[in-house]
Fold:
Amino acid sequence: MGLFGKKENGTAARTRRAAELHGQAIKYVTERVADNDNVVGRGGSISVRNGELLLFSSDKILLRAPVAKLDASYLLSGDGVVLSAPNLEEGGKERRYVAYFVYYRK
Structure:
């Protein structure tokens, strides 16, 4: 058991996290390349369809990954999420993106 409680990694937990992200509006997306965080997309959204998570940004699909292999972790600030998974758009190449959410005042 970790400092903040038990970490859930099962398929049910991954599916639940993906469902929480469904429909989330994205401000911008970064990817770390050689110790630099590069902005790879602006605007967009996260969607879950047919057991796959899709990260849309800059009018293209940056990440299409099976929910069963997705590792999604919220940033401590709550401003975004780190998505790590094999990208089906690139033949299964492992990718790690940070998607920052659009802030809406409620």
The longest strand covers residues 93-101. The first helix runs from residue 11 to 21. Residues 7 and 97 are 21 Å apart (CA to CA). The two ends are 34 Å apart (CA to CA).
